[in-house]
Amino acid sequence: MEDNDIMTREDRIRHPIAKGIFYPSDPGKLDETLQNHLSESEETIRGIENQEGETISALIVPHASYQLAGTVLASAFNMLMLKDRPDRFKRVILLSTVHRDEEKKVFLPDFHAFRIPTADIPVDIEGIQKLIGYHPLFELNDDPHREEHAQEIVLPFLHRCLPDARILPLLLGSNSPGLINPVSRSLRLFIEAEADSTLIIVSTNLSRFTKIHIARDQAEKISAALISGPPRISSALQSAGTSAICGSGGILSTVACFQHRIRFIELMTSSSGPIRPENREVWYGSFCGLHIEE
């Protein structure tokens, strides 16, 4: 019976696929890497000032190897550590979009935890069951989560800075406008009673891996739209097309969830630099979403 219990527990864990590729697989090396990136972004974040009447409610972060985007990713978590009370966040909703095999669905995991080298991060199982009942497009399905790296890359920083938080991973089957309305409405209903203890993290890059001039143009337009405000965000992403950046659906769902009462601050941006011989690159950025209280 004991062996069966152990097997059941292991079956309910989502095992990492990006360790040793996007971030270190050794726990000690991973801790050292996280601290280095947090230290490198600290000075930038200390220079940012919150405005009265605004609270941190969302982050937009990249998904790439820590070598390329670790400091950019760390800047978002430093915002929580240096400009807020990270212990107030008991639940983190993760939003990203599948990178292949698009479907008009939102995939929720049946896993009980997501494993990284330093911890098993618990899933908000009650929250999953609650969301499933909100709309028929929500589907309990582990397979898409097994294959995706975008949320996993965020987890080591999340656990380092919010060690007591549970995660609620939502994987959008596409960036289709037909998913954004049900996702945003469901999230609004879901967090309304616990908004102060819930954080939304959108995992996306600022451009596709494409020709240098196209990638830079995409990143500049998306960054400008994010800091200009919700109306500009929606129009910029819609005019660019749903495939312009991988996480546009998560961004639009978050903006609509807060009914456009959210302001984004640009924290850090960077690029991969030219990748030869194709001469292409991808851009990364971190932004902090401040909920504007009525």
Polypeptide structure, described:
The protein has one domain: LigB-like (Protocatechuate 4,5-dioxygenase, Chain B). With 294 residues, it is an alpha/beta fold. Helix 7 (177-191) packs across helix 10 (248-257). It is 41% helix and 23% strand. The chain is globular. The model is unreliable at 1-8 (pLDDT under 50). The strands form three sheets. The protein has an eight-stranded mixed sheet with strand order 7-4-8-3-9-2-13-11, with helices on both faces. A three-stranded mixed sheet has the order 1-5-6. The protein contains ten helices and 13 strands.
Blueprint of the fold:
Elements: H1 2-11, E1 13-14, H2 27-46, E2 54-61, H3 66-83, E3 91-97, E4 106-108, E5 113-116, E6 119-122, H4 125-132, E7 138-140, H5 143-147, H6 155-161, E8 166-172, H7 177-191, E9 198-203, E10 210-211, H8 212-228, H9 230-240, H10 248-257, E11 262-271, E12 280-281, E13 283-292
Parallel strand pairs: 1-5, 2-9, 3-8, 3-9, 4-7
Antiparallel strand pairs: 2-13, 4-8, 5-6, 10-12, 11-13
